[in-house]
Amino acid sequence: MSHVKPAEIDTAGSARRLTAPGGVHYCAGVEHRFIALLAAAAVLFGAITGAHAGGRDEFNRAIALEREGKMRDALGVLGALADTKAEFSDDALLEAGRVHEEEMLDGEQAVASYGRLIKEFPNSRLVRRAAARIEALRSVEPRHLRAALEFRRAVLDFPKDNKASMERVLNLLQKSPDFPGADHAYFWLGEVTRGRKDYVQAEGYYHTVIGRYAQSQWAWKARRSLGDLAYDKKDYAAAADRYREAAAAPDQYLHSAALADAERAETHLFRGRAANLAILLLFLGWAYVLVALSRLRPGIKAAKQPVPEAWVALGLSIIVVAAAAVFQRRYVPGIAVVLAAFLISIQLSGTLLRYRVYSTGGKIAYLLATLGIGFGVLYGAIVKMGLMGSVLHTFRFGVD
To answer: Taking a C-beta distance cutoff of 8 angstroms, is the pair 127, 91 a contact?
Structure first.
């Protein structure tokens, strides 16, 4: 087994030459200089990345303090990080502005933080966001700025605590009933109470917006929301009127949306009236048959004897109801009512044709009237069950 020979000092005495198996020589002094160079590069790289990592760690520490509710401590950490001009200094300034604005409700300090970001980091990706926030804050009069920020904070907190946010907005409106965002606040309360199905109170808030701020964008939106309330109640005539009022809004998007809503409500109104007419015709048809039977020899009691067609229709009806119970149970009551109407119509019509003789023209007229009433009843049932949209979609695009 071969061994590496011990190092030998050459006559110069400045470098050691080691001999490896096979007689390959290399210089230990060169190796040491190379290792030293790598170490220096590692120190430099570590210093750079360490500074960045430190900035990231400080930023994350500030966020953790915010989550603990220690906003002033978080602002201290963010301010110190901003002073270092590190990688995360611009993020720190933007976050500091957000904390001043949304948590501390201090608009002036928020503007100062956003402004410092724009001044000291003009090439930052965050400059546009900071400028937008400054513009939004300066658009509010200084005396109303805190109220506006408090309303914004309440809206942001709504997902966490609905009741507390609503109480906060109501208290704000009592303290500052004329702050510039009051119209938005009343509309927001209307939307919230409507979402909680408190429709009476929601309607009251909408009317407050319209009554006090008639030309505000939120008043136009409130008119549309009143249309939504009427639509949900299936009062399509009132809904169409409210939507038409909202369509007078100067905002083009709201104008177009309200017009589309009005047309939708008017379509439902027409369908509902047509369905009611079809049902009325059904009852008039039954009345005609009963009057006609009363004038024949057997009388109305003849309708008690089932005609063959009624038995066939009964069997088919049972199959349809059973299929609906399996696949679409919620439609079973409506389908059962429609089939019952058809069964009654078949029984009365069959009985009348059994005892009364019609001419060929009379039979054709009778058949057309029966078919018309039958399709009318089917149309009315589809409308009453709210299935017209699905039926039209199926006819247009086929079965899904």
So the answer is: no
- Residue type for position 399: V
pLDDT at 332 over 90: no
Report d(CA 304, CA 289) in Å as an integer.
Answer: 13
271-278 average pLDDT score: 84
Rounded Cα distance between 76 and 92, Å, is: 10
The β-bridge partners of 26 are: 18
- Residue 5 pLDDT > 90, yes or no? no
395 falls in which pLDDT band (50, 70, 90)? low
Residue 75 domain boundaries: 1-139
Which of the listed residues 139, 174, 192 is the one where a domain comes to its end? 139
- Is residue 222 situated within a structural domain? no
Write down the pLDDT at residue 16: 34
pTM to 2 decimals?
Answer: 0.65
User: Could you say which of 139, 155, 174 is where a domain stops?
Assistant: 139
